[in-house]
Design brief:
Elements lengths: L13 H19 L9 E2 H6 L5 H4 L7 H13 L1 H7 L1 H30 L5 E2 L5 H5 L1 H7 L4 E5 L3 E4 L2 H11 L5 H16 L13 H15 L16 H26 L17 H4 L29 H12 L4 H10 L4 H10 L1
Helix pairs in contact: 1-4, 1-11, 4-9, 5-6, 6-10, 12-16, 14-15, 15-16
Length: 353
């Protein structure tokens, strides 16, 4: 369903698996015991007027609505890619930091609504919703967008479209869900940008991470998927494409880590994602090549004439996509020629050479 996350399940994502199992288990348990649901209602006025601070903890963990629980579970399952990219501790620190920041933002937004519209917001949707919305910030900024198909020739569908559709479904599930969504985006933006060095104050300590590694990780860890399954045993082209996308995510992370270690300066590139910063070694590979003599106009030796890539519309679109990612046109043509115009295999070929 979500092509950005690959098809490896919860491998190297024990925290995401634990959140899904524990929170959904509690949601099912509360649906069977409705007399205890009042303890998990996110009553913001009870916190402000009656000082029931404990509701900031209980009311912001378990979803009491089945639709909210289902949509948030789908989003957590998709966002597990960040846990595999950056590690469980950093992923937990992001969730903890945005969860704590959103407490203050929730109170400020409800007071702003009361002052501007003279309306008192009494209850907000319960559950771990603001950290889920905050994950849209790194998802938008760090996950590359790749076109998948078109609807009616006008609407472009990318590998991120379905995630935004699920987020929109969650946004419209409750009247005041927009307030939590705004709180999550603000909290995620502040923490991701490290405003006022928030990441140095709101993080999971190393000793807590060690305790979780030895006690909780064995309970929720998943085994590595086998790569020895024959292609004739039910593997499809869609699964193979998702696996290549997962490999691409890993290689992007390695390239970013290598760039951070070398700390070299490069010319900035226009656009939201500066792709030219991710692949410096490959981008400057052409500078070390010896100068080649131009091909003669007369084709005196047809046998040594370089093969010409099919300049169809599809091939030109694929070349343009690779050029936008920071590769030169010559390298993109070579990679597409070697991969028979397969954009995913060409991308992997360019990253590996």
């Amino acid at each position: 369903m979500f092509t950005t996350t690959g098809s490896r399940g919860f491998y190297k994502a024990p925290l995401s698996k634990g959140l899904l199992l524990v929170l959904n288990g509690l949601a099912v348990l509360l649906s069977l015991l409705p007399q205890y649901q009042e303890l998990f209602v996110y009553n913001i006025q009870a916190v402000i007027q009656q000082n029931q601070v404990w509701r900031l903890l209980c009311g912001r963990l378990v979803c009491l609505d089945v639709k909210d629980s289902f949509c948030s579970s789908l989003l957590i399952y998709n966002f597990r890619i960040f846990e595999r990219r950056f590690g469980t501790r950093k992923f937990a620190s992001f969730l903890l930091g945005t969860w704590c920041l959103s407490v203050l933002v929730d109170l400020l937004l409800t007071q702003a609504v009361q002052l501007l519209f003279d309306y008192e917001v009494e209850e907000l949707p319960a559950g771990l919703l603001t950290p889920v919305f905050s994950l849209f910030v790194p998802f938008y900024l760090s996950i590359p967008r790749m076109p998948v198909t078109q609807i009616l020739g006008q609407i472009h569908v990318t590998n991120k479209s379905l995630v935004y559709v699920v987020g929109l479904q969650l946004l419209t599930s409750s009247p005041f869900m927009w307030l939590l969504a705004l709180s999550g985006l603000i909290s995620g933006g502040l923490y991701h940008s490290n405003v006022l060095r928030l990441q140095k104050f709101l993080f999971v300590p190393a000793w807590v991470s060690r305790i979780g590694r030895y006690i909780l990780e064995p309970l929720f860890s998943s085994s590595q998927p086998s790569s020895e399954t024959p292609l004739g045993m039910g593997a499809t082209l869609d699964i193979q494409r998702q696996q290549r996308m997962d490999l691409l995510d890993q290689q992007l992370l390695l390239a970013q880590y290598s760039e951070a270690r070398t700390n070299t300066r490069h010319q900035p590139q226009a656009g939201l994602l500066q792709w030219t910063r991710l692949f410096p070694s490959f981008r400057h590979r052409g500078q070390n090549r010896p100068q080649m003599q131009p091909w003669p106009q007369a084709q005196t030796h047809p046998s040594i004439q370089p093969p010409v890539l099919d300049n169809s519309t599809v091939a030109e679109e694929q070349v343009a996509r690779l050029v936008e990612m920071g590769f030169s046109r010559i390298d993109a043509l070579e990679a597409l020629r070697a991969s028979n115009n397969d954009i995913n295999m060409a991308t992997n070929f360019l990253l590996q050479h």
